[in-house]
Specification:
Elements: E1 2-7, H1 14-25, E2 28-31, H2 32-41, H3 45-55, H4 62-75, E3 81-85, H5 91-103, E4 110-115, H6 118-132, H7 140-154, H8 156-162, E5 167-171, H9 176-189
Parallel strand pairs: 1-3, 1-4, 2-3, 4-5
Length: 190
């Protein structure tokens, strides 16, 4: 089973590249953001709490996200693999994900990190906010807080996978196809 962590700050292009990976490799996209937005749109208690946190640029508790991921894995037992997009965001989450996958006789194959500078990220997210109407992408202050949160808490996850020799860095600035070609080279090596 091919299990990839697609890594990078908000606005790095993870969603775009995930779609291309799904099409080429037949993987299932597991986006914690999509899982959470689904809960929000359904108006569940989890969704309402998640919305409150997300609107302030704060991460949703680990046990909630791990539970949603476990359910998604169980619902897709015959999958060729998964793309983890937006998770793990902390070393504790990476450890919990490794334990969850091990309990299901699987593991992360590798992490691919899309590297994009903060100014470009803010520009991309503001554009996405105008196009999508997502409130978390429309407010520059919330965007900067999300990027800072990523830099402070999420970037150390790269070291977790570097220590397992599963980390690859890709330049996330360029055309969509150029970036995907670079990602494809890494994935093909797995």
């Amino acid at each position: 089973m091919l299990n990839l962590v697609l890594f990078g700050p908000p606005g790095a292009g993870k969603g775009t590249q995930s779609q291309k990976l799904i099409e080429k490799y037949g993987l299932i996209h597991l986006s914690t953001g999509d899982l959470l937005r689904g809960e929000i749109s359904q108006g569940t208690a989890l969704g309402l709490e998640a919305k409150k946190l997300m609107d302030h640029g704060v991460l949703v508790p680990d046990e909630v996200v791990i539970g949603m991921i476990s359910n998604k894995l169980d619902a897709n037992k015959d999958a060729k693999g998964f793309i983890f997009d937006g998770f793990p965001r902390t070393v504790a989450q990476a450890t919990a994900l490794d334990e969850l996958l091990k309990s299901k006789s699987s593991a992360i194959s590798g992490m691919i990190a899309l590297e994009v500078n903060d100014d470009e990220l803010e520009h991309r997210l503001l554009l996405r906010g105008k196009e999508s109407g997502r409130p978390d992408d429309a407010n520059p202050e919330v965007i900067r807080k999300r990027i800072k949160e990523y830099n402070d808490k999420t970037a150390p996850v790269a070291d977790f996978y570097k220590n397992q020799n599963k980390f690859k860095s890709i330049n996330g600035i360029g055309s969509i196809s150029e970036i995907f070609d670079a990602i494809g080279t890494v994935v093909d090596a797995y």
